[in-house]
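Our preliminary data section would be incomplete without showing what the modeling component actually yields. Below, a chain of 171 amino acids is followed by its predicted structure, encoded as tokens that our downstream tools consume directly.
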Amino acid sequence: MSNPYSQYQKTQVTTASREKVLLMLYEGAIRFTKHASAAMRQKKVAEKGKYISKATAILSELMATLDFKAGGQLAVDLENLYVFMIDKLIEGNIKNDVECLDSVEKLLMTLYEAWKDIVENPRADGVPSPKLQPDEYRKFLDEQSQAQNAPEKSGVTKNDGNAKPVVKLMA
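Predicted structure:
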């Protein structure tokens, strides 16, 4: 008889958008890194190795899915970061160094939060993220407010929501 939870997980992955799968991969890598740290602290060598191996496999998968043509320098930077994290996981495994795993977990959390913000709040219009870029977002709002309050002087008309951005930032 099939495990219902396993079936549910399989359905979640096969029906999820590419963006959701990306977030799920990060969630898995974070979870496995945490489990590996806990196993390392408890001196459970086999368990530690199993979880480090799973986290490494996810990072390898993330690296394999990078699109260097579309992503340019960002893809190169992500590849370098994934390689660094894999190296830190291996180093942590060999040296039984929890700090190596903790540093990987922090990097994964930072990337996860950034991707989550992009997925949940897509901004092809170049508007900075209120959560990840609060200073830039406040500046953006101030500029918008100034532009709306002084349309005659600047030659800018009020934004009716149909304005096209001059510069588009990568989402």
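The chain has two domains: 4-120, 123-171. Residues 154-171 have pLDDT under 50 and may be disordered. Preliminary results of this kind motivate Aim 1 of the renewal.
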